[in-house]
């Protein structure tokens, strides 16, 4: 938690649940990534947190943007970004959305299938397109499995076809899964892309860009490697597979930019046990999976908590949200422990909650309003 957030919580005591995000921290994270990967161009993955305050700060820093929908493209342009700074990176787009983005000047689009290429050729003629290939997601705490990307052989054919269809076969991309804690995942993916890149060049395709996607991890409950370790591994692999003919390098960080810039301030609603002698207490908060903590699904992302009693004796807990749905149980198997003194009415902070929280909040399940947001 940054000093500015701590001060805000103490002074304002905002109603809970709410997110408090320090926009200066977003800037620091952007600069840290820039210095770890000075040769890469940063496209912020807007879906992590599309708040205009974040987008505007990043526009001011010269960031580019990875948008996943027409609505995100529009939000980024409204925040002052130039159309040339926008990549429409979802490989699954409605044709009407492609047309809308193209009409506003966007000229960079992702694809991973022939069907998408046909839409792009019709509705975004002449644009730069890049093909996303399937890579391993091992080591990612929030993996993306096989939903996006295609096999290398198909990517090769589609890149050739893109040129024939009047598009500019600009580059290749991958995404190693989010909260990727293993630098080797990038090295393996770069090796795979490097081979295809060379093949395409030899086939006469004017491919110029490699997009390394997102995934750069942040600290939740457990330590993760420093961003410089990712920068070193990535640049080592790029040098190994591309020599000194480096292509344009693009990265698409989302979580790394936004997550540790914010905390969620919540309230303990109830502390109970299922039997008198049960060692495990149930701690119910006023935010849960439907309030925005969607990434606790499968206990994948393990948030760290701060309480007013930190340092006092702790015991085992199951942590749950306030709604009447049993899937609104956050952590039952991950050995969470909280202070024995914790009681209803205590405020509790959920750390590093700036990414993938606010927009996941439901409209009003059980009548609970979406999370309030404060950008400071
Ligand atoms: C979600 C996503 C990102 C951002 O991932 P993070 O793990 O938040 O860095 C980047 N690129 C693509 C294609 C994505 O889908």
From TrEMBL:
Protein name per UniProt: ornithine decarboxylase
Pathway: Amine and polyamine biosynthesis; putrescine biosynthesis via L-ornithine pathway; putrescine from L-ornithine: step 1/1
InterPro entries: Ala_racemase/Decarboxylase_C, De-COase2_CS, De-COase2_N, De-COase2_pyr-phos_BS, Orn/DAP/Arg_de-COase, Orn_de-COase, PLP-binding_barrel
Family: Belongs to the Orn/Lys/Arg decarboxylase class-II family.
In-chain residues carrying the UniProt-annotated modification N6-(pyridoxal phosphate)lysine: 47
Matching Gene3D superfamilies: Alanine racemase (3.20.20.10), Lyase, Ornithine Decarboxylase, Chain A, domain 1 (2.40.37.10)
Family annotation (Pfam families): Orn_Arg_deC_N
Superkingdom as given in the UniProt entry: Bacteria
Catalytic activity: L-ornithine + H(+) = putrescine + CO2
Active site: 324 (proton donor)
GO MF, any single term: ornithine decarboxylase activity
Residue span(s) of domain Orn/DAP/Arg decarboxylase 2 N-terminal: 24-259
